[in-house]
Amino acid sequence: MSGTKPDILWAPHQVDRFVVCDSELSLYHVESTVNSELKAGSLRLSEDSAATLLSINSDTPYMKCVAWYLNYDPECLLAVGQANGRVVLTSLGQDHNSKFKDLIGKEFVPKHARQCNTLAWNPLDSNWLAAGLDKHRADFSVLIWDICSKYTPDIVPMEKVRLSAGETETTLLVTKPLYELGQNDACLSLCWLPRDQKLLLAGMHRNLAIFDLRNTSQKMFVNTKAVQGVTVDPYFHDRVASFYEGQVAIWDLRKFEKPVLTLTEQPKPLTKVAWCPTRTGLLATLTRDSNIIRLYDMQHTPTPIGDETEPTIIERSVQPCDNYIASFAWHPTSQNRMIVVTPNRTMSDFTVFERISLAWSPITSLMWACGRHLYECAEEENDNSLEKDIATKMRLRALSRYGLDTEQVWRNHILAGNEDPQLKSLWYTLHFMKQYTEDMDQKSPGNKGSLVYAGIKSIVKSSLGMVESSRHNWSGLDKQSDIQNLNEERILALQLCGWIKKGTDVDVGPFLNSLVQEGEWERAAAVALFNLDIRRAIQILNEGASSEKGDLNLNVVAMALSGYTDEKNSLWREMCSTLRLQLNNPYLCVMFAFLTSETGSYDGVLYENKVAVRDRVAFACKFLSDSQLNRYIEKLTNEMKEAGNLEGILLTGLTKDGVDLMESYVDRTGDVQTASYCMLQGSPLDVLKDERVQYWIENYRNLLDAWRFWHKRAEFDIHRSKLDPSSKPLAQTAAMFPFFRKSPESKKPSAPETEADGFVLLGDTAHEQRKAAKGKTSEAEDSQPLEWTGQNLSKFEPLVQ
């Protein structure tokens, strides 16, 4: 406390009381105002606290420093250091215990008058009070008094003098301290070291000195300008802070030669530094004429022995109020709480909130730390948002062995829940690719098997200029339409779309039957119509209308189809062109778009985004010329890549274009699981080596590890090693045999086994085994661990009985 600026002190053992010190001592009581109104005469400290003035002590003028007695009893005893160097014990009138009544008013007087700069009570021996004074050439500057010692004239001379000529009361003056230290120097700050009640750290004029009261003739010191405000970290007793001007020095008393850390503040000089009593390693600093308190969080990070690296710190600033701050004081027990006081005695109760550190658990629960508390927030089981989370989906799919079915590849979409139409399209595409690749390899090995996994875009490019159109009759109508002759490549494209099965048969009947069984009446009718079988389309619609889950309106659609006429200016064509846009089902829309379109102009079918990509591509393969088909496939591929639509894998295949499409899909959904399994299914080596593919695979492996799905991750690694020859071999377990050099595989079946110290010894002869068991062979002493080279571990039996 300097000049007239107030200082503030919390009571050591009464956590709801504090003292403001300037020209007088004012005791306040803090109470909560959360559920009550502000009392008359109370001072608002914060939104939920207020202070009430309990008492004022004006008996100690010229105060320079104040220290609150650390013991429980008496609870309101304070030591006041004055400008003349005297230390006065005073009270705030709250304690009437006669046992300590004689302490009140006792003065401790130095030989020569000079300013008292600092006071410090010993935390272990609570009767000892250290005082730091200004320099005097013939006197000591560090005096240690015992406030309760029983003085005798022979040991401590005592005299009674009048304070002034007008006073009638006398007081006890103590003039002989227990210890006198720091001769011919000034003491600016003091603190006792908690690890030993006999050690006192003093900030002298040009050095920090540690005095040992057991041998006052010796001291340990270090030259420094940072001698003000010395204070010990309450959680790390070897760490001390001090300051000078605008710099804070952090010292380690175990290595006292130089500061372990220097903190540079603003150009303004510092006025106070204080460790937080409820938080490890948190230091608060205040500069002159500032409303900012700067906080330094000393992080405990391990460093190598002898490393000169400075400790890690996190710095932040807080602004408790708008006015300049004269002083502050940490609350002794409430976490990160402090009270600040301004030069005009305006006070504010303030809590420094911790930085909140968030962490997601692998199973989507959220945890965060705030101070000493750890909070966990988990989703409710009936929360729909949890079901939509991709991490939850991938976790459930992993449990169902999603992606691992390499025989019936299409079943993987069922393992995924059979809810996503894009996943269904993807796995059916991969199933057809695998099926027709194996079929081609059997017919002509190495011929076109790799072309299948390149996608329809590459397949149709290989047949440009080879296809001509021809007239085909409708079934159920007296009409002909131009349809492209199906060459081998277009047939393969239709097979990948699922319209026809493998072989030379181009009949879509089996496909229509499967759609009808699944209840996809509208889609089946559209496919029948695209194959010029309007009679079958009408039949399917009627079946759908009469089924339990069918739509009765399908009868109306069937009736409309039955009235089809090829005349361009007919009323039927005019009405269907207008009303088809009002139909909700996209397949019903494209049916009428197809019937009302001009020959060669099928945009109403090709660009209906709600129709499955495989159906639009199959339609294009039947009705578009080579040039039209190539342009359409190219445009559709780019759309699929940009949107990250998995249906586009049918076009791109497992190529670089497929990786681009999958990248957009992962960016949109985060589904690295599907991306990993898809690219492993049949991608060429150069695609598997793509950084993006490897990134998805490694991230999925890390996810499985984070979920502790060790067996699932092992299954995935085995699956990967089968499909990706370039993947690294799995880690092997090394076996070491200290008694011999031979590999376990060299063990002869007939060789007997002996036991020594719990280990089975394997040898070529009984003689060697006996020598090994007795420990007399030099080989046993000089043997080296065997180097394991990846043999199959499953052939070994346990070696420990």
From TrEMBL:
Q: What are the start and end residues of every segment in region (Disordered)?
A: 742-801
Q: Which SUPFAM superfamilies match?
A: WD40 repeat-like (SSF50978)
Query: Which part of the chain is the MIOS-like alpha-solenoid domain?
Result: 394-623
GO biological process annotation, one example: positive regulation of TORC1 signaling
Q: Which UniProt keywords apply?
A: Lysosome, Membrane, Metal-binding, Repeat, WD repeat, Zinc, Zinc-finger
Q: Name one GO molecular function term.
A: zinc ion binding
Pfam families under this entry? MIOS_a-sol, MIOS_WD40
Cite the record's Basic and acidic residues compositional bias ranges. Answer: 765-779
List the record's Gene Ontology CC terms alphabetically: lysosomal membrane
Asked if the keyword Transport belongs to this entry, the reply reads no
Asked if the keyword Glycoprotein belongs to this entry, the reply reads: no
Q: Which domain of life is it from?
A: Eukaryota
Per the record, the major location class is membrane
From the Swiss-Prot or TrEMBL record, state where the protein is found: Lysosome membrane
**Subunit structure and binding partners:** Component of the GATOR2 subcomplex, composed of MIOS, SEC13, SEH1L, WDR24 and WDR59. The GATOR2 complex interacts with CASTOR1 and CASTOR2; the interaction is negatively regulated by arginine. CASTOR1 and CASTOR2 convey leucine availability via direct interaction with MIOS. The GATOR2 complex interacts with SESN1, SESN2 and SESN3; the interaction is negatively regulated by amino acids.
Q: Which function does this protein serve?
A: As a component of the GATOR2 complex, functions as an activator of the amino acid-sensing branch of the mTORC1 signaling pathway. The GATOR2 complex indirectly activates mTORC1 through the inhibition of the GATOR1 subcomplex. GATOR2 probably acts as an E3 ubiquitin-protein ligase toward GATOR1. In the presence of abundant amino acids, the GATOR2 complex mediates ubiquitination of the NPRL2 core component of the GATOR1 complex, leading to GATOR1 inactivation. In the absence of amino acids, GATOR2 is inhibited, activating the GATOR1 complex.
What family name appears in the similarity comment?
Answer: Belongs to the WD repeat mio family.
Return the PANTHER family for the record: GATOR COMPLEX PROTEIN MIOS, WD40 DOMAIN-CONTAINING PROTEIN MIO FAMILY MEMBER
The protein in question is named GATOR2 complex protein MIOS
